[in-house]
Amino acid sequence: MSETYTGVLDRIVDGEQAVLLLEDDGDDDGAAENVSGEAPRDRTAGGRPTVVDELVVGVDALPAAGRHEGAVFDVRVETDGTLLEATYRADAEGERRESARERFDRLSERLPDE
């Protein structure tokens, strides 16, 4: 049996290992264990997806176009933690970058003087 997650490439270690942060898509009831066999972490973060686990895979297991920090994937993971499939989602990555830029812009605006 396998699970599907949104995976975000957090970092590449020594040019060989990719660390994917797996996010809850909100499709289940929250009772399932994550790929490391632990109970999932809290899944509520102000409406944004929450990291429920991380997965370390060889960089070569990822599509070449997505081998950079911040890349977003649809990932299918075997219950034992084996990566079965990773599909790069350039559109989702662009949306996340734009959202982060907008959030930063809002936070960097001066508050009105009272």
Automatic annotation (TrEMBL):
Domain of life according to the entry: Archaea
Region Disordered, annotated ranges: 25-47, 89-114
Protein name: DUF3006 domain-containing protein
Lineage: Archaea, Methanobacteriati, Methanobacteriota, Stenosarchaea group, Halobacteria
